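Suppose you are handed only these lines of text.
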Amino acid sequence: MVLPIARLLMLMRRGSGKDLSTTKKQCVMVTNNFIDVYADTHIRSSVGMIAEAIRLTDSGSAAVLGCGRCGEIPVRLLNETFELVDLVDIDREALAAVDEQCKKWDEEKNSYQVHCTDLTGMIARVERRASELVAKTVDPVACLEQLGVLLESTAPEFWAPPRGERYDLLVCSMVLTQLQALVRESVEKIYLGRFPEYAPAMLKHKSWCESVWNFARNLEDDFIEHLGTLIKPQGIVYLSETVHVSWLTQLDEQSVSTEGRWITLRTSRLTDYLRPGDTIIKEQHWDWLREDKEGDFCGRLYGVQAVIYRVS
Ligand SMILES: C[S@@+](CC[C@H](N)C(=O)[O-])C[C@H]1O[C@@H](n2cnc3c(N)ncnc32)[C@H](O)[C@@H]1O
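From them, the structure of the protein bound to S-adenosylmethionine can be written out as follows.
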């Protein structure tokens, strides 16, 4: 079926063509690209890939970690296929919305269970310690360094199902980069609650930025390692992430420009996180346009990568 093009974007990429992971450079324009962006590419691709992962498994139990509102997850197919589907997220409202939707289907069986929890097991501990540090500090800059050390030195205690069983299928759709974001934001909120005028300085503070980067990448590695403890031998994992992001500026009705593409992870390939024994079954990537205004920007263009893999 051919879908109408939602938007034909002319992406005028200002950049060296390299991925910029930490520094924002002003560069010259080197290429003009036309990109076809369909309104539903993201949801269709995501649902299609997860449906393939479900077919490879076909029975037993599954978990969706960071399920949110299941906007990109075929939750009904999961419910039909598996005897147990654990839906896990920290967002109580999102889980309530999913629960309500599932009840409306009035299926013969309801395999799903919702779990409102912090997947990292870090947020409450980090918040408590950050509040103590911020309350007793006299030097906002030194405090930022201490908060960086706190992030780097607090070990995650990842969620595991109360029953202790292992799953046949794990779905981790767009959660990998969000784990670190939520923990970091909880610390930033506490700090900026006391020192709001330090918001711009915080973005440039060298040791804080380095700590945040190290913390994020280590948490991502640890999370992938943890998946190995949640899944049965030969089990299937679906993992996807917005590996690239470009902030867009509107030029005219059909054209946008961007200063470059940033990598949200350690490298530009999601599968670099996989462990030596993991076997890639399928990889796919697609563009996802989000037209939400953010300051001077008219939206973001994400480069999504998704992988289905089998653990050893
Ligand atoms: C980008 S959204 C995923 C969207 C979802 N896959 C969907 O189909 O709509 C990331 C989700 O991860 C959840 N999340 C982030 N950090 C978390 C944490 N520490 N524990 C549990 N959930 C977390 C967020 O609440 C959010 O719902």
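What can we learn from it? The CA atoms of residues 189 and 196 lie 9 Å apart. The chain has one domain: 7-15+28-293.
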